[in-house]
Every structure is written in structure tokens, then in C-alpha cells.
Amino acid sequence: MPRSKRTLSNQGLYHVYNRAELGQPIFDSDSAKAVFLETVLQVSETLAWELHAYAIMTNHFHLALTTPQADIEVGMHALLSAFANKHRAFRGTIGHVFQSRYRADHYPLGQLAGDKVDYVHYNPVAAGIVSLDELRYYPWNSYRLIWQPSLRGRLTIGPMLGALYGLKDDPDGWHAYEERLRLRMASAERSLTDDELFGLARKTKAGGLPEAVGLPVRAGMTSDGHRQERAAEQERILGEALAAAGILPEDLPGLGKSAGVKVAVAQAIQARTLASSAWLAKALHLGSAPTYASCYARPRGQAVTKST
Q1: What span, in angstroms and rounded, lies between the C-alpha atoms of 298 and 304?
Q2: Which of 78, 88, 72 has the alpha carbon at shortest distance from 32?
Q3: For helices 30-47 and 72-91, angle between their N-to-C axes, nearest 10 degrees
Q4: Are 162 and 169 in contact (CB under 8 A)?
Q5: Please, are residues 28 and 13 in contact by the beta-carbon 8 Å criterion?
Q6: Which residue among 72, 142, 203, 214 is least crowded, i.e. fewest CB within 10 A of its CB?
Q7: Residues of the chain with CATH 3.30.70.1290
Q8: Spatial contact of 136 and 147, defined as CB atoms under 8 Å apart
Q9: What residues of the chain score a pLDDT lower than 70?
Q10: What is the DSSP string of 35-95?
Q11: Residue 303 has what DSSP assignment?
Q12: How many CB atoms lie within 10 A of CB 142?
């Protein structure tokens, strides 16, 4: 049975997650976690994703994000492929790194979206890796960056606090969110006391915004519309790259599959988009995607010695 198309959206929040093949500990070292996080941030920057939260566990990950260009498919393909290639190269292994297809559950901004961000944040606590107090300093979860604004970079934690919880991005708002998280975890095991509920209400009032705020509202578009728009943008960039290289589209079939000028054009396109190897191979007549990938692996500027 063919896979169903995902619903693409440039609004709301995606909870994205996936597990390693056979539950293998692919993130068992700090260096592996760091490589994955770096890849997440690179893709987020390239596509201008709004990354609200992340958790990198031993054998799986969670992301909470918004895709302003409705490109969850393109971004996740690039992210998982890039990390899998690095993982296989480092470990000297072959085969799948991740288990089946990633999940990308979509929620409108509101309580359900807030619950998912909470879930991402307390994942290491629920797994017994750290306590909630220790989570402030745990490097592989975005919760610590609530308390360290100078280290957030592109993470949209401040706007997330306002849009999903009505909280200020200051110590009062941070403490209110911490209490929310603490009581959410406690409520999974027992009923909350009146004192706990009143305490949460006091902190929420102290850390609350005077009026509601939201994330940017963008014009809606159908999923097929987003795909067509993205395809047209890639075609436009392809045309610009060919023109810059002095190549006409009709000249491509006559050039060698691994011709250096073709590889250079492909590199120029990938510097501006996350076009897949398969798309580039077809658009530039590079042969198969694996053939293109082997060409692309050459250091830039290295002479091309084979042309077929």
C-alpha cells in the first residue's frame, strides 16, 4: 500500500519524533547527540523553521516546531538522511539508522500544542535520566535554554512561552512554566492538592502576560499548493544556477554524468535549498542519486577525471 501524503501546514505546531532501528542506542554518546543537534539547527536555519523545543534521548528524539514554508517533508528528509550518513560513516555500518517513517503530528496553537511541548521537555525526567531541577543544566533538552536566553540562538522559546502559555519571557514566567511542568508530572501519579493548585495560580499570575499574544499568522494554502510552490522555487533556482554557469538546459544531456560543471551547479543549488539527491540527479542528468552523491562527496575544486 502506498504511503499517504502528509498534511502540510505553515501554521500551528508539529510534534516530530522517531526511534532508532531496533531501538539501538544511536545517541549513546555526547558527540552523537551533538552531531544530531547541530544537524537539526542547520536544517532549521536553512528553512527558517521555528524550533520551539527538542529532546535527544538515547535511542529516539522529539522536536516541536513550526514550518513557515510548510516544508516538513523536505526538512525531515534532509535531517534524517544527513544524520544517518554521518552515523554510518562514523560507525562503519550499513542499513537503516531510524525505524520506519518518522511521525509528525500536527496541532493548532493551543492547549494540545502546549501539552506536546511539555512532553518534549519532561522526557528526560520521565525516563529517569535527570530530575526536573537538574533538567535546567541538561544539555540535550531545550528546557535549559528557557533559563539561558543568551544561548538560544534561533530557538523560539520566548515567543512559545507567550503564545502557548500566556507567560512572560522573564524569571517570573520561567518559574511559572517550571511549576506547570512539575505539577503536570505529579498529576500523572496522584491528585494535586489545593495548595499546589493555588501555588501554580499565583506563579502563573506573577509570570503572566497582560494580554494574549500569538505566533505570526500566515496565509493558508493546501498541501498540494505548498508542494507546487516549492517545486517552482527549486526550478527557478535551477535556472539561475545554470545561467550563472553558462549552461543551457538543453546542453545537460550531452555533458558527462559526473562532469565537474554539473556537480558545481548541484552544489550551488544545495547551498540555497534542500533539494534531494534524486531531484538533482534527474534535473541535471547526473545518472542515479547514488552516482550524484559519490560525485558530491568529492572536495570542492577537486578535478573530475571521469566522464561518461
Answers
A1: 9
A2: 88
A3: 150
A4: yes
A5: no
A6: 214
A7: 13-207
A8: yes
A9: 1-5, 22-23, 87-97, 212, 214-227, 230, 271, 274-276, 288-308
A10: HHHHHHHHHHHHHT-EEEEEEE-SSEEEEEEE-TTS-HHHHHHHHHHHHHHHHHHHHT--S
A11: P
A12: 24
Find the angle CA(217)-CA(221)-CA(225) to the nearest 5 degrees.
145
Q: Which three cell numbers stand for residue 222?
A: 493546501
Using CB atoms within 10 A of its CB, is residue 66 exposed (0-12), middle (13-18) or buried (19+)?
buried
CATH number of 13-207: 3.30.70.1290
| Contact (CB, 8 A) for 178 and 132 | yes
Q: What is the pLDDT of residues 61-86, one digit of tens each?
A: 999 999 988 889 989 988 888 888 87
User: Which amino acid is located at 231 in the chain?
Assistant: A
Residue 291 in contact with residue 266, Cβ under 8 Å? no
Is residue 259 within 8 A of residue 304, CB to CB? The reply is yes
Nearest to 215 by CA among 18, 9, 38: 9
* C-alpha cell at position 241: 544556477
Cell triple for 201: 495560580
252's grid cell: 545537460
Q: How many CB atoms lie within 10 A of CB 165?
A: 20
pTM above 0.85, yes or no: no
Please answer whether residues 273 and 235 qualify as being in contact, where contact means their C-beta atoms are separated by less than 8 angstroms: no
Contact between residue 80 and residue 9 where contact means Cβ atoms under 8 Å apart = no
Contact 166, 212 (CB under 8 A): yes
Model pLDDT for residues 193-202, shown as the tens digit of each residue:
999 999 999 9
Look up residue 62 and give its three cell numbers: 522529539
Residue 251's CB is within 10 A of a number of other CB atoms, namely 12
